[in-house]
């Protein structure tokens, strides 16, 4: 239902929920809703973890401190098991990615009409609340990881070593330099693309299922499908945050290896 009270067809309802609040058009369009929610959730993560760190006690910890310590220890163990170099960036980066992506994913568990309908009452025509269902957000994060891959590759191997890695593997012979370069370039570019599209595809599909349930079924029967899907989706959103974090660590570990 629109803010004016008019009834929408299922097609119009689905289209409305998949439309971003945008500024600009075409290639230069900016999805304001995705930007706002991702920044707010990132600020929430920083505030919450800093608050726990400041108030941490060596005595009997509270439930929130126990939860944060559990998350930090889990991420730290994951990093130690994959990344064998020495870097002060990798563990904080992994923690940030895991918690931030999880918070963006968990927005998919909000009732599908609650925030968009509230926004319409306030005069905001469109609102999508799941930043990780926006390919611009996921590919932007993957692009950041891509730049770190370049940074660590050049830092550890030097420019000549990095170029040699692109041109002399997998076939270690000068005659195969063009073929090696093409293969290694495609492999390198596939890392951020697959990283961003995997998260986007899973979260977009999850969001679409919630929208389809709301569009096709009357309100009194939606919970028969919404509740089981939401319970299963908790596993999906956690797993996607974990996969994004693990692949980031793996890619940076590969870039960090000198051989």
Automatic annotation (TrEMBL):
It is a multi-pass membrane protein. Keywords: ATP synthesis, Cell membrane, CF(0), Hydrogen ion transport, Ion transport, Membrane, Transmembrane, Transmembrane helix, Transport. The keyword Ion transport applies. It is found in: Cell membrane; Membrane. The chain crosses the membrane at residues 27-49, 89-107, 135-154, 199-221, 227-252. Pfam families: ATP-synt_A. The keyword S-adenosyl-L-methionine does not apply. Key component of the proton channel; it plays a direct role in the translocation of protons across the membrane. Belongs to the ATPase A chain family. This is ATP synthase subunit a. The lineage of its organism: Bacteria, Pseudomonadati, Pseudomonadota, Gammaproteobacteria, Aeromonadales.
């Amino acid at each position: 239902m629109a803010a004016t009270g008019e009834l929408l067809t299922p097609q119009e309802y689905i289209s409305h929920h998949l439309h971003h609040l945008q500024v600009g058009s075409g290639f230069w369009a900016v999805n304001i809703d995705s930007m706002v929610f991702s920044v707010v959730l990132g600020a929430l993560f920083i505030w919450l973890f800093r608050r726990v760190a400041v108030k941490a006690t060596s005595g009997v910890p509270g439930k929130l401190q126990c939860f944060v310590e559990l998350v930090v220890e889990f991420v730290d163990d994951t990093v130690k098991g994959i990344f064998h170099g020495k870097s002060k960036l990798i563990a904080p980066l992994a923690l940030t990615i895991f918690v931030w992506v999880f918070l963006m994913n968990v927005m998919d568990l909000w009732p599908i009409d609650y925030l968009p309908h509230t926004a319409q009452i306030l005069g905001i025509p469109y609102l999508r609340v799941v930043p990780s269902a926006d390919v611009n957000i996921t590919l932007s994060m993957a692009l950041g990881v891509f730049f770190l891959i370049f940074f660590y590759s050049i830092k550890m191997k030097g420019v000549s070593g990095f170029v040699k890695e692109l041109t002399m593997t997998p076939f270690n012979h000068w005659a195969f330099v063009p073929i090696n370069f093409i293969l290694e370039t495609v492999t390198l570019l596939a890392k951020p693309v697959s990283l961003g599209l995997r998260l986007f595809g899973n979260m977009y599909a999850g969001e679409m299922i919630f929208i389809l349930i709301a569009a096709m079924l009357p309100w009194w029967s939606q919970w028969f499908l919404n509740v089981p899907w939401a319970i299963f989706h908790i596993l999906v959103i956690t797993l996607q945050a974990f996969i994004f974090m693990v692949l980031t660590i793996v890619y940076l570990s590969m870039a960090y290896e000198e051989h």
